[in-house]
Specification:
Radius of gyration of chain A: 19 Å
Number of helices of chain A: 12
Strand order of the largest sheet of chain B: 8-7-9-10-11-15-16
Order of helices and strands of chain B: HEEHEHEHEEHEHEHEHEEHHEHEEEE
Distance between the termini of chain A: 54 Å
Largest interface: A-B, 37 and 32 residues
Helix content of chain B: 25-40%
Distance between the termini of chain B: 79 Å
Radius of gyration of chain B: 23 Å
Shape of chain B: globular
CATH topology of the largest domain in chain B: Rossmann fold
Largest sheet of chain A: 2 strands, antiparallel
Oligomer: heterodimer
Structural class of chain A: mainly alpha
Largest sheet of chain B: 7 strands, mixed
Strand content of chain B: 15-25%
Helix content of chain A: over 70%
Number of domains of chain A: 1
């Protein structure tokens, strides 16, 4: 039972981060029908911005502000930095290709991905960056927490999971309960009709990139709070986020959240109950199975084409 | 149009033929002309200076530079040290590309490194075919120097090392777990790459033979989150042995072990011997070099190195690099004497490697190669325990 609880906690931690990344894919796809393959690298940049701000605030061994404020500032800085990065990417890599055949922005996205990863390596080197949260208050984030039977859910995990869920709720509210969210949904449904109704499409698209990239930035920090980050982390994180988005139904916000969690559970339970070597195999087999049997994903809509 | 295509084709053929014709005489000139011992000879150092194992190369290069600054005049040589980076995350490609580059450079007489076992496997055949001696100060995979029917030789006769292999490290680590830590249940995690799997296998063999219960796990070397692996560590496990070349990973593993309230002691190999990163108190780590700060004969060398590298801490990866330079210089000197001042062929250096003797070797005692393998004779591994202040204390 302890193993099951522990694996479930692992799954929630991992899944909530995958869900945040998947949301970025799904938001952009919903509005632009573009697979933004640079999204994983935005996540990586977010983790590096967080690291930089953490160092500016004295690092974990000698922070100049209280721990809670430190974590909030680091996350907000990464979200803001990534939001700006998302806007720049949209403006220079995707907007000029908006009316080009769909393959053109896809190739551009891959180009941006390589550009970001290699630029970061040139600027900061390939060394892993460790937030070293273990040094905060003598390991309090690891040693304190909630005990469920013999399983300890550390404070760090509670922070990671709850922050991710709060961000997902905020996003849901933004998309479903605000005017801008309504404009996003309208653009997603029919871009031309939305434009004719007076919606500023450019503004909506920029806002979509801001939202998606900010979530990637937050995910980057939540990820790097627990494990070291490197410039190459974006590729695999992006791939997992994309898989989660496809499983959930790309274009569906609730689907991306569900897809991320499903992926987290699949990975964690496979590692725990089958073999640690098999987790990626199982995860990507699920992706293939969805592509064959339910290409629209769990909560996505099947595309109906007029012939 | 046809004419234009024919013209372009002819041009391409002509350029190709010129390039091919030009390549052959250059390659011949490199071996036929010989290398004057009075000229500046190049020794490349192939080591990771960036990436997860960058700490290894960064430390080694400071010692190699210090050796090249202070030693060549004693051997009547002029040496230029160049550094080739092989980040472990990029796999075998950088080591292979560097090997092609250094083989083509006729001023290269011998080579330091490659520092990691994976990079040796990727490039040793290229160096061997060109007759270039390559001496590693840290690649410890057993099969690089010893081949058995089950585990064929991965190295070549041109590969040497001045540190002992994992066939000594694995059993030494395992014996320490059995004799000093009284381990009854051990979890071994390998990182699915040559160094880690090799060391894990050797240690497992010794532990199993001693009746210790061993659980073997295997993580892809792209793993960043070890939660699931930690979950699989039984709560009554005494030791977790995790040989990795990326200290941040063993540090993460240790943190997650504590996070889940597991009491097992964490044990790393030489690849995780980095006090600035791996600092879980009470954990253990092995290395092929002792703390040379305690060897009186090394006092002047240590003082000189510290003067050149203010603020840097004395680690375990650097001193074998200093020793490797010393060994190579002596082998080159012996070759120069035998070849009357002109090294006729780079293979000649290889012939003199086993004749090298160093009286006061930096790692303590005298140095010579074994007659059976290209390993040092009578070398051993040392075990350190991480203290509450993060320092490493020699305990075995």
């Amino acid at each position: 039972m302890d193993t099951f609880i522990q694996l479930t906690v692992d799954a929630l931690t991992l899944g909530s981060i995958y869900a945040l990344i998947a949301l970025g894919y799904t938001l952009v796809y919903g509005v632009l029908k573009l697979l933004n393959f640079a999204h994983g690298d935005v996540f990586m940049v977010g983790s590096f911005i967080g690291f930089g701000v953490l160092q500016l605030l004295g690092g974990t061994s000698n922070p100049s502000v209280p721990i809670w404020l430190l974590l909030v500032l680091v996350t907000l800085a990464a979200m803001a930095g990534c939001a700006v990065l998302g806007v720049v990417i949209e403006r220079f890599a995707y907007r000029p290709l908006r009316d080009a055949p769909r393959i053109a922005p896809l190739i551009s996205a891959l180009g941006v991905s390589f550009f970001l990863a290699n630029s970061m390596q040139l600027l900061f080197g390939a060394e892993p960056r460790n937030y070293d949260t273990f040094s905060l208050s003598n390991g309090a984030l690891y040693l304190k927490g909630l005990d469920i039977g013999n399983v300890r859910v550390s404070l760090l995990r509670i922070i990671t999971i709850s922050s991710a869920f709060v961000l997902m709720i905020v996003l849901w509210f933004l998309v479903n309960r605000t005017r801008t969210g309504k404009a996003m949904r309208a653009t997603s449904f029919d871009r031309e009709a939305a434009a004719m109704m007076g919606i500023d499409i450019d503004r909506v698209i920029v806002f979509t990139f801001v939202l998606g990239s900010a979530l990637a930035g937050a995910a980057g920090v939540l990820f790097a709070l627990r494990v070291p980050t490197t410039v190459s982390i974006g590729f695999i994180a992006g791939l997992k986020g994309f898989t989660a988005a496809v499983i959930g139904g790309i274009g569906s916000i609730q689907g991306a959240m569900a897809g991320g969690l499903i992926l987290g559970f699949a990975e964690s339970y496979t590692q725990g109950y089958i073999s640690t070597k098999w987790s990626d195999l199982v995860v990507f087999s699920i992706l293939i199975a969805f592509m064959i049997f339910r290409p629209q994903g769990l909560l996505g809509r099947a595309e109906i084409r007029k012939v | 149009m046809k004419k234009a295509i024919a013209l372009v084709f002819a041009l391409v053929v002509a350029i190709g033929a010129t390039a091919a014709a030009g390549a052959k005489p250059t390659a011949k000139a490199a071996t036929a002309a010989g290398i004057n011992c009075k000229s500046t000879l190049t020794i490349p150092f192939v080591t990771p200076v960036t990436g997860g194992a960058g700490f290894i190369g960064t430390e080694q290069v400071t010692w190699a530079k210090y050796a090249v600054k202070t030693l060549p005049s004693q051997f009547g040589l002029k040496i230029k040290l160049v550094v080739g980076d092989t980040p472990v995350e990029q796999g075998p490609a950088p080591a292979q590309a560097l090997a092609q580059k250094y083989v083509a450079d006729k001023s290269v007489v011998a080579l330091l490194g490659p520092s990691t076992s994976g990079a040796v496997v990727a490039s040793t055949k290229t160096y061997f075919q060109a007759g270039i001696v390559h001496l590693s100060p840290s690649a410890t995979h057993t099969d690089l120097t010893i081949g058995t029917p089950g585990d064929p030789l991965l190295g070549t006769p041109a590969f040497f090392r001045d540190v002992p292999g994992d066939y000594i490290q694995g059993p030494a680590d395992a014996r320490f777990m059995i004799d000093k830590l009284h381990a009854k249940k051990v979890v071994i995690i390998d990182f699915q790459e040559p160094y880690s799997v090799g060391l894990a296998d050797v240690a497992q063999k010794t532990l199993t033979a001693a009746g210790v219960s061993v659980t073997r796990l295997s993580a892809p070397n792209t793993t960043t989150d070890y939660s699931a692996y930690v979950t699989k560590v039984p709560s009554d496990a005494d030791v977790v042995f995790f040989p990795t070349q990326k200290p941040p990973d063993i540090q993460t593993f240790g943190q997650q072990l504590i996070e889940q309230g597991k009491k097992a002691k964490l044990f790393g190999g030489d690849g995780s011997n980095d006090p600035s990163v791996f600092k879980i108190p009470g954990s253990y780590v092995s290395n092929f070099a002792p703390d040379i700060g305690g060897i009186p004969a090394d006092a002047a060398i240590v003082a000189g190195w510290k003067k050149d590298n203010p603020g840097k801490t004395l680690g375990s990866f650097g001193p074998p690099a200093y020793g490797a330079v010393q060994i190579l210089l002596r082998a080159i000197q012996l070759t120069c004497i035998a070849d009357h001042g002109v090294i006729k062929d780079r293979r000649d250096v290889l012939k003199h490697m086993k004749q090298v003797r160093v009286k006061n070797f930096i790692l303590g005692g005298a140095f010579r190669f074994s007659t059976k393998t290209n390993d040092p004779l009578n070398a051993k591994f040392y075990i350190f325990q991480i203290q509450s202040n993060g320092s490493y204390k020699l305990v075995g």
